[in-house]
Amino acid sequence: MFKSLKYWNFRLWCGSIILSIFLIIGFVLPLFNKDSSITWAAYPRNLPPSAEHFLGTTNLGQDTFLLLSESIKNSFTIGLTVAFFATAAGVLVGLLAGFIGGFPDRLITLLTDSFIVIPSLPILILLSTLLKGNASVAYISIVLVIFNWPWPARQVRSMTLSLRERDFISTAIFSGQNLMETVVKEVFPFVSNWAIANFINTILVAIATESGLAVIGLSSNEKATLGTMIYWANQHQSMLAGRWWWIGSPVVTTSLIFISLFLVMTGYQIYSAKRRGKDA
After folding, report:
1. Global pTM?
2. Which residues pair with 63 in a beta bridge?
3. 128: how many CB neighbours lie within 10 A of its CB?
């Protein structure tokens, strides 16, 4: 483990540190907080930042820092859930389609291409409008998974089509390995690094999509996310009232999370390339 740290680069270190800070704020700090972060009128309204309230309070009587912590946790929960299931489904489908070939491959390719050409944002807006802003986090996650699995499936299929022609695949088949053993043991290790990078990128896409829907009031307004935090701040004119801590904290946090995820993704790609070069 420690030996592999020498391959880490500045991007990976910087992104990992920033990301770790937000994960601690979102998932560790709430464990020590007994008060509800989303209850209205829990504190005096519109207090400026102070030692007692690190980021002040909102017009709804919520501690802004506690609300931000809850929002980070829920946004990351959506992002991680969507990234895990979309990447797992896409990689599995892509591996099987590329390795089996024939009619299953053509059918899966038609299905993935159909999902890719369909614009996801208008459909998400339509579904959210029909639910009148009452969509649950689980519902939003499911819809995002549906629209995010075709991309990894298409990419992994292309890589698998090339890999299945290699000599070591023929050797594995002739040695008696069945389909799943060959796919898991022989093909998957070659696409695993790409799958990890896609997983990180999908977290970013899922958080960005949910935040975009929430800002225009089409996500779950009852659940605290970075997007809904911006939505309520806009609804109560926090910018015009000069309450920068309410709207500024989720905007800056969202930006830093996106930057950290981008740094981790690109840094991991550099790390993976260096490690492959050393191990070769």
Report:
1. 0.86
2. 57
3. 22
Q: Are 58 and 246 in contact (CB under 8 A)?
A: yes
pLDDT band of residue 5 (cuts 50, 70, 90) is: low
- Distance separating alpha carbons of residues 187 and 181, to the nearest angstrom: 9
Residue 1: pLDDT band with limits 50, 70, 90: very low
For 216, phi and psi rounded to 5 degrees? Answer: -95, 10
- The C-alpha atoms of residue 23 and residue 17 are separated, in whole angstroms, by 10
CB 124 within 8 A of CB 135: no
| pLDDT exceeds cutoff 70 at 12 | yes
Encode pLDDT of 227-273 as tens digits.
Answer: 889 888 888 888 888 888 889 999 999 999 999 999 999 998 888 87
| 32: nearest Cα among 78, 69, 57 | 69
Tell the burial category of 71 from Cβ atoms under 10 Å away from its Cβ (0-12, 13-18, 19+). buried
Identify residue 130 by its one-letter amino acid code.
L
Examine the pLDDT at 280 and tell me if it is beyond 50: no
- Nearest residue to 154 via CA among 182, 191, 184: 191
Q: Which CATH architecture has domain 13-30+65-279?
A: Orthogonal Bundle (1.10)
CB atoms within 10 A of CB 229: 30
| Domain locations along the chain | 13-30+65-279
**N- to C-terminal Cα distance for the chain?**
18
The predicted-structure confidence for 153-177, as pLDDT tens digits, reads as follows: 999 988 888 888 787 777 877 777 7
Q: Which residues pair with 57 in a beta bridge?
A: 63
Dihedrals phi, psi of 63, to nearest 5 degrees = -70, 120
